Amino acid sequence: MGRLENRVAIITGAGAGMGRAMVQRFVAEGAQVVAADVVAAGLEQFRGVPAVTTVRMDVTVQADVDRLVQTAQDLGGPHILVNNAGIMDRFLPVGEVTDEVWSRVLAVNLTGPMMLCRAAIPVMVRSGGGVIINIASVGGLAGGRAGVAYTASKHGLIGLTRNVAASYGGDGIRCVAIAPGGVKTGISIGGDPSPRGYETLKKTLGAMPRQGEPEEIAALAAFLASDEASFLNGAVITADAGWLAY
Q1: Scanning 124, 130, 169, 186, which has the fewest C-beta atoms within 10 Å of its C-beta?
Q2: Contact, 20 vs 217, CB < 8 A?
């Protein structure tokens, strides 16, 4: 029996990279997964998989968020929410970032997870608890791993994680964050990189021991979603092969 038997998990950004790996790992652990993505093509790979229900949606649209949570409710959940969907910002520093880039990155990376937490938590409270896993970044713990919008969004996501943990831990809800380093996901940086921003990043790249595999993050997420991690709440788990240690 898998560690996630009889549980319904929502995973956003499920069509590729870490999201796809998490869907596969959670299914292998016995979960029923509601796989969500804004790109319909990414969800086609799950067609015909009995344990996966796909939902094309945008995490920044309240009606889509409500529809996603309702889909999980129809399956008896959600017991687990993984806020994985995210976008990057071309490494734009504050002197170059546009209002459009700032607003879009914060909307997807921070406001979207807040909206999903807001929709899912009341359902979890009524059912006795649940687990929320926010996919943050080492960029949420340091200043030179991305542009200003991405960095601010991931710092904010860690703050969201800790506030949810403090506010709802007594209701049986655990909220934790994973802060990955460089992972082979194929995520677009969002366009041509800023020379200044990329130069800042390059100062840290020499200390990166290696890139991670999506499956390594998925394995960590499955553990955090399971009862084996019952003592972890408000924790931020860095998964970067020691990159931040240098």
Answers
A1: 186
A2: no
Task: Please name the amino acid found at residue 70.
Answer: Q
**Sheet (strand 52-56) strand order:** 52-56, 32-37, 8-11, 80-83, 130-135, 173-180, 236-239
Query: What does the buried/exposed string (b/e) look like for 186-214 if buried means 16 or more CB atoms within 10 Å of the residue's CB?
Result: eeebbeebbeebeebbeebeeebeeebeb
Contact 177, 110 (CB under 8 A): no
Residues labelled as active-site residues: 150
Burial letters 50-73, b for 16+ CB under 10 A, else e: eebbbbbbbbbeeebbeebbebbb
pTM over 0.70: yes
